[in-house]
Amino acid sequence: MGLRVRNDRLEVDLADGRRISVPLSFYPTLRGASPRQRNRWEYLPYATAIEWPDFDLQLSVESIVEGRREHPVPPGFGESTLAAMKAHGITPPPALVRSLRSADRNRARAQTNQRSR
Fold this sequence. Notes:
This protein is an alpha+beta fold. Helices cover 40% and strands 21% of the residues.
């Protein structure tokens, strides 16, 4: 399997020889990333998914083949969720806190990169 971004498209070469090409508009996080950030990806176990650790983005090969789009979290979702949990006396696990805050940072970073183009 191989992966590359060309001309505003994500191309994935599958093990069976097919090449899937989808518009980057399906994946706003990738579209907003710099070329260097887009090239920092890795396969998840058994090559069933691709991860961009810089943005905490994972796309399954199945979802790419089926043309499913990324649904980014709305601005401030992480902090508002944490505030709601705190208001209800719930202590979120540290991993959830990191994940929610990461989502907010990644969204802000993608928007900044998109504006600078």
